[in-house]
Amino acid sequence: MSYDAHFKVWRGDADGGGLVDYTVAVNEGEVVLDVIHRLQATEAADLAVRWNCKAGKCGSCSAEINGRPRLMCMTRMSVFDPAATVTVTPMRAFPVVRDLVTDVSFNYAKAREVPAFVPPPGVAAGEYRMRQEDVNRSQEFRKCIECFLCQDTCHVVRDHEENKPAFAGPRFLMRVAELDMHPLDAAEGAGLDRKRTAQDEHGLGYCNITKCCTEVCPEGIKITDNALIPLKERAADRKYDPLVWLGSKIRRRGA
Ligand code: SF4
Ligand code: SF4
Ligand code: FES
């Protein structure tokens, strides 16, 4: 079934802009990105949109559809009433470059702030051994396609630009959690306490486990339940366990 859909698409740049109305044909089986491409091909040749794979794997086509952070290539037109208006706007938490394209460099900066995996001393590459359950735990987080929809939806930064310097956001707190629960990561032995840095440098305390990030993740990663809450628990154990506290003091003095 083909029909004409009513779209509102945000057009503009860093200096400002607004919603522009379009009526555009929709064919059976299409997704929002198909419609945006048709708009480019017909009446808005200069409409800026970022995309690559059209398969939900590159994480490029993130936007907000009727106010909800989503991948345009994975949002079927069939989920909308054909008579309803579909509104497409750029991700709100990041500065607009043009139209639906945002500057996501905040995320790259936060990625660089998380220290990499520290290889265990005395174990050659290729000799690493892990229990399957530890592999599975990391594997869930490794499904991330870096679409940054979780970063966009998190209320800590969504309307609070001032929180950005102190808060890494769910995607990168998840990365800290992944490394902290990695059985072969030798960070602690190298003087890097990932639980402390999660609190002091990546803003773990800002997260009040609302799970909004989890709700928008297109990979279905349980960011809050499987990464953020366990990291909070371990960070709290470390802070309030007197033996852990004493041990860390002795280690620091001996460092
Ligand atoms: S659970 Fe935490 S990180 Fe996720 S959206 Fe809520 S406050 Fe942000
Ligand atoms: S955790 Fe999910 S929502 Fe966040 S960047 Fe990765 S795939 Fe996207
Ligand atoms: S175009 Fe790659 S995730 Fe949508």
Features:
Beta-grasp_dom_sf; alpha+beta; two-stranded antiparallel sheet; Ubiquitin-like (UB roll); oxidoreductase; metal-binding; binds iron/sulfur cluster; 255 residues; five-stranded mixed beta sheet
How large is the radius of gyration? 22 Å
Number-wise, the strands total 7
Q: Which small-molecule species are bound to the chains here?
A: iron/sulfur cluster, FE2/S2 (inorganic) cluster
Q: Rough shape?
A: elongated
Tell me what portion of residues adopts beta-strand conformation: 15-25%
Order of helices and strands: EEHEEEEEHHHHHHHHH
Biggest sheet record = 5 strands, mixed
Please give the alpha-carbon distance between the first and last residues: 70 Å
Please identify the structural class as seen in this structure. Answer: alpha+beta
Number of helices: 10
Strands across the major sheet, in which order?
Answer: 2-1-5-3-4
The helix content, as a percent range, equals 25-40%
Number of domains: 2
The overall pLDDT, averaged over residues, is: 94
CATH-derived topology of the largest domain? Fumarate Reductase Iron-sulfur Protein, Chain B, domain 2
Uncertain runs with pLDDT below 50, 5 residues or more?
none
CATH class of the largest domain equals Mainly Alpha
